[in-house]
Protein: CENP-V/GFA domain-containing protein
Organism: Antrodiella citrinella
Amino acid sequence: MVKNIDDSLHFFSTEKRTGEHSVPCKVSCDMCRSPIFDEGRNTVLAYPASFVFEDGRIPLDFQPTAHIFFSQRVMEVPDGIPKWSGHKGSSELMQELTNDEGKMPKYKGVPNADSNTPAKDP
């Protein structure tokens, strides 16, 4: 559950269609209404540019675990993260295209030991 310390967040419940925090909901800046993330019952879809980390390194918990609806992509993303044609786990797992044959660039911030399979979540 999100804590709205100092009332800096605006919530919009998409189910109740009200400005309250009730999942699923959209969360934005209360001052400028810039979107920050969508909070679901079991997931958060975040806008990466909304987060700035002090040391410039993205914590593992904030790194993506999958690309969804990749069959409708507008560009290739050769990052070693699993790509699903639809929802994660309930659609076709798609092959990543890369210029380096047999090599996956990264997954969860760690180079893969076995280039044929993605690294496991920590």
Summary: The mean pLDDT is 79. The chain has two domains: 7-48, 63-122. Residues 7-48 form one domain. The first strand starts at residue 9 and ends at 13.
